[in-house]
Amino acid sequence: MTSQDLQGKVALITGGSRGIGREIAACFLRAGASVVIASRKSEGITAAARELAEETGSDRIAGVVAHVADEEQARAAVATAVERFGSLDILVNNAATNPHMGPLTELTESKAAKTTQVNQYAPILWTKLASEAWMAEHGGAVLNIASVGGLLVDPNIGYYNATKAALIHLTRQLAYEVGPEIRVNVVCPGLIKTELARAVWEDREDILSKGLPMRRLGTTDDIAQAATFLCSDRASWITGQSLVIDGGALSMPVGINA
Ligand SMILES: NC(=O)c1ccc[n+]([C@@H]2O[C@H](COP(=O)([O-])OP(=O)(O)OC[C@H]3O[C@@H](n4cnc5c(N)ncnc54)[C@H](OP(=O)(O)O)[C@@H]3O)[C@@H](O)[C@H]2O)c1
């Protein structure tokens, strides 16, 4: 992939202060894009913007404070991209939450509402705002970050996974609704070594890696490289698609063949 893939594009990435979102920001900057990253904590987003500028040598980066479910903050983040850098060509709906661990029968209404709002409604809200502000008229690409969990059953994160399954479906629905001006795709990461998933991989990396066809856990760069392609003009006829990036986890034998 050349460093010119996203030259002249402006991207907005939610949850861009660490983990997968931060790496997508770094990859986009190296590919020539201008980038606005958004997250809830002022300190984290300011530090991430500064460090990304240092790491990539690009000063075309801005950080904004925004809770993805807060419409006014979302609107302000979208406006920052357009006012500061002149357009909004790419939106990455990356931020997510998982306040409930355990079976669905123990889920409370407030935790269900929070998970739905952040993981499922916010990507629709940000897509709508990006569309109104720029993309409907000038075109654009939206990338949602779901999870391979959206295709699986899990004993502990069933509701989170259900919102990711919904996000995979919503991607197809949105692609139908906002084309041909706007493309909408989704990536479904397997286990990636970030803070969010630390409790799952820490102290168990060797065992988990051995169980995968690719014999290693995922890195944030594995997701960022695919995101860069899907948001670039090279993917201009790809929309409504989900791409699983899981080191082969879904290719494992199940049931009586195991
Ligand atoms: N790591 C994995 O194994 C894995 C696997 C499959 C899918 N995913 C998905 O990948 C995405 C990123 O995960 P990650 O592992 O990179 O997470 P992470 O390392 O915990 O980073 C999460 C980012 O989102 C921000 N954030 C959290 N809640 C937010 C909210 N309500 N509004 C705005 N920003 C918010 C955080 O910053 P603040 O705290 O400052 O808000 C941070 O920048 C998520 O959609 C996740 O579901 C991850």
From TrEMBL:
InterPro entries: NAD(P)-bd_dom_sf, Sc_DH/Rdtase_CS, SDR_fam. It holds the Pfam family adh_short_C2. Signal peptide: none annotated. Coiled coil: none annotated. It comes from the Bacteria. SUPFAM superfamilies: NAD(P)-binding Rossmann-fold domains. Belongs to the short-chain dehydrogenases/reductases (SDR) family. This is SDR family oxidoreductase. It comes from Arthrobacter gengyunqii.
